[in-house]
Design a protein that fits this description.
The chain has helices at 2-13, 27-37, 67-88, 90-95, 100-109, 120-140, 155-177, 198-228, 232-242, 244-252, and strands at residues 49-51, 58-60. The chain is mainly α. It has one domain. It has a two-stranded antiparallel sheet. The longest helix is centred in the C-terminal third of the chain and has 31 residues, at 198-228.
Length: 279
């Protein structure tokens, strides 16, 4: 949780020195990005692209998950979490000194009950944010689903979000119990009462809820504010702070935290947002 807050604060404070116009500058440029990522769907055929009445661009009818960048970005996130733990937690540094394989297996055997000894804020705020980062990382690396607009009545929207929840489950389970996770590096679970089911359940379930809330905030709060506020630095802060998990996922893909795949950059000084229906 503290690592998450530190990186997000750093990204916001760096806003004045980073470019504000790295994103598509118009719906037409979004269309170009869609076509370049889905080359077999280029062309004007209605069967290739599905129009969205809420955006001003069209969502590709098909797409694929880009596994290499997905795994690399999740690996980077895992490394950042371990780096914070080893840098800030003396117990983690101490536990790594024992026999690696034996201590890892003993840590897995220490799994018991619901609670893991962490504070409430870590279990029920930090881990949902962690899960939402995994979810946005999944969406960012799917050549179709990252273009699906926020529409709570859309089957496409919910299918894509539940797929992201499946990835949250895989990634968070590995973080808790996997050979590169906290049970191996730092031996969480080696001491009784430090490894329970709480994070395995809360990370993907409340992670999905957090992701959906951030989608809602982006569509119903951030976009209306951007229609009225043209100052790029204020836009940077609004996009980053009101969508913290999405901001972290953007950083993991080496994009500025206020990046949006489906609309103009914060430096775009005209009304580049759809007005008909929901954003």
């Amino acid at each position: 949780m503290r690592l998450f807050s530190f990186l997000l604060a750093l990204s916001v404070l760096s806003a004045p020195i980073l470019p504000a116009y790295d994103e598509p500058g118009s719906p037409e440029k979004v269309e170009e990005a869609v076509a370049s990522e889905n080359p077999k769907h280029n062309g004007d055929s209605a069967s290739n692209l599905r129009p969205s009445p809420h955006t001003g661009y069209e969502v590709p009818a098909e797409g694929s998950l880009q596994w290499k960048p997905l795994l690399l970005q999740n690996g980077l996130f895992l490394g950042l979490q371990h780096g914070y733990r080893f840098g800030m937690q003396e117990k983690t540094r101490r536990n790594i000194r024992g026999p690696f394989v034996r201590d890892y297996l003993d840590s897995i055997k220490g799994f018991s009950g619901w609670h893991d000894g962490d504070e409430w804020v870590a279990n029920y705020l930090g881990h949902p944010l962690q899960g939402a980062v995994y979810g946005f990382t999944y969406l960012n690396n799917h050549t179709r689903e990252k273009y699906i607009p926020t529409d709570f009545k859309s089957k496409d929207y919910w299918q894509s979000r539940f797929k992201s929840m499946a990835w949250m489950t895989v990634a968070s389970t590995h973080y808790e119990l996997g050979p590169l996770g906290e049970a191996a590096f730092g031996n969480v679970g080696l001491e009784p009462g430090t490894k329970g089911a709480v994070d395995l359940v809360i990370t993907p379930t409340l992670g999905l809820a957090t992701l959906v809330v951030e989608d809602f905030a982006d569509a119903r709060l951030i976009i209306p504010l951007e229609r009225r506020i043209h100052n790029r630095y204020i836009r940077m802060v609004i996009r980053s702070l009101f969508n913290p998990s999405r901001s972290m996922a953007n950083l993991l893909s080496f994009k500025v935290p206020w990046h949006r795949t489906t609309r103009a950059g914060v430096g775009f000084q005209t009304d580049a947002f759809p007005r008909n229906g929901r954003p």
